[in-house]
Structure formats: structure tokens, C-alpha cells
Amino acid sequence: STTTPTSTTSVTSLNASPFNSNLSSTSTLSELSSTSTTSLNLDQKIKNLNIKTKKDDNNNSNNSHNESEILIKTSETDRLCELISRKGHEGLQSLADNISVALTIQNEVESRVDFIFDSFLRLKKEKELLMRENVKLENGIKSVSQWFGDNEKYIALTEKPDIDQVVQYADKRTEQIIELIAVDKSLSEIMFSLDDALQNHIIDMETWLKATRVVSKDQYMTRARLQKIKSLHETVESRKSFSHK
Fold first, then answer.
1. What is the dihedral of CA 207, 208, 209, 213, to 10 degrees?
2. What is the pLDDT averaged over residues 199-211?
3. Are 148 and 155 in contact (CB under 8 A)?
């Protein structure tokens, strides 16, 4: 009875040994498979990480490239804005100068227009005055022609007609004025003759002084009478014109 359990136990241990061995190898294979799977997963993750890193590097390089392009474009834009600003300032300055010149020319033209307009008005007045004078001259020519027609026979018969008979005065006052003017001119000729005689030593200083004193007195009185008659004539004419108004 004691032998039997012992043998049974030994059999049991012998029979159990292969089974445990199989269990160990199976476990080992599972572990190896799990390790292999984990390794593959790690490799895949590393690859993915490398790919992501490369993408990030590419993105960073692209970003840096874009930033450099942006800086270049910004610099070019700044230069372009500065150039536009400078050209615009120059253009505005040139425009201001042109406007100033144009205003100066406009002011000068306006002043010349005013001068031309004033000259036109002045010439118009002078034209009217000349036309009136022309009418007077034409009337005088007609009067003279008529006079020559009326006195043609008398002029043909007389070589030297008497001026007092040829000239017909309008009135007594006109006759007095013409006579006084003739006397004044004659006295002026006498004064000239006296000066000429003194310079040529024809008369002495004392004679020249006496004669000049007499002639000067006569000429003064003649001119006074002439001025008085003219003043009376002007007074009469002004009264006539006032009465007509």
C-alpha cells in the first residue's frame, strides 16, 4: 500500500512535466509575438514621427521662405510708396508753380484788358472830337469857297486887295478883337526890331531903353483892352447859353 502511492506520484510527476514545458513555450511565444508587435508599433510610430517632423520642417522652411518673400515685398512696397510720395510731392509743387504763373498771367491780362478798354474809350472820345472838328473845317472850307465865288471878279481886277475891304467881320466886337491882336503882333515885331538894332550897334542903350519903355506900355494897354473885350464876350455868351437852358 505504501508503494502504490509513491509510484502514482512519480507517474503523475512524469506525466506533468511535458505539459508544463508546453505551457512555458507557449507563453514564451506569446511574449515574443507581443514584443514583436510592440516593436513594429514603435517602428511605425517612429516613422510617423519622422514623417511629421519632415512635414513640420518643410512647413517651417516654407514659412520662413514665405516670411522672406513677405519682407521683400514689404520692402519693395515701402520703396514704391516712398517713390509715389516723392513723385506726388514733386507733381503738387509743379502744379502749384504752374497755378502761380497762370494767376500772374491772368492778372497781367486783366490789367491789359482794362488798359485796352480805357484806351478804346479815350480813342472813341478823340474820334468824336475829331469828327466835330472835321465838320467845322468842312463848314469853313464851304464858307471860304463861297467867299471866293462871291469875290472872284474883285480879286481878278485887283492885284493887291485891301484886307479891310476883303474881310467881313461878324460883328463890331470881333472887329475890335482882330484889330487889337494885329496891334499886339505889330508891337511884338517892334520889340524884336529894337533888340536886333541894339545887338548890331545901330542904336545905343539909352535909345533902346526909351523906345522899349514906350512900346511895352502900348503893348500892355493893348493886351489889357483885348482881355477886357474877350471877358465881356465870354460873359455875354454864358448868359445867352444860360437863358437858353
1. 110
2. 91
3. yes
Which amino acid is located at 83 in the chain?
Answer: L
Please, how many CA atoms are within 13 Å of residue 109, restricted to the half-sphere of its CB? 6
Residue 73: exposed, middle, or buried by beta-carbon count in 10 A (0-12, 13-18, 19+)? exposed
Residue 212 φ/ψ, nearest 5 degrees: -65, -35
DSSP letter, residue 200 = T
Rg of the chain, C-alpha, whole Å: 71
Q: Kindly state the cell numbers that stand for 57.
A: 520642417
Inform me whether the pLDDT recorded for 90 exceeds 70: yes
pLDDT tens digits along 97-141: 889 888 889 888 888 888 898 899 999 999 999 999 999 899 988
Q: Which amino acid is at 114?
A: D
Q: Name the nearest CA neighbour of 147 among 130, 131, 161.
A: 161
Q: Residue 113 has which C-alpha cell?
A: 484788358
- What's the mean per-residue pLDDT of the chain? 76
Q: Which cell numbers hold the place of 32? A: 515574443
pTM of the model: 0.35
- Confirm if 222 and 187 have CB atoms less than 8 A apart: yes
Query: Exposure of 187 by Cβ count < 10 A (0-12 exposed, 13-18 middle, 19+ buried)?
Result: buried
Q: How many CB atoms lie within 10 A of CB 180?
A: 20
Q: Are the C-beta atoms of residues 177 and 230 closer than 8 Å to each other? A: yes
Amino acid at position 27, single letter? S
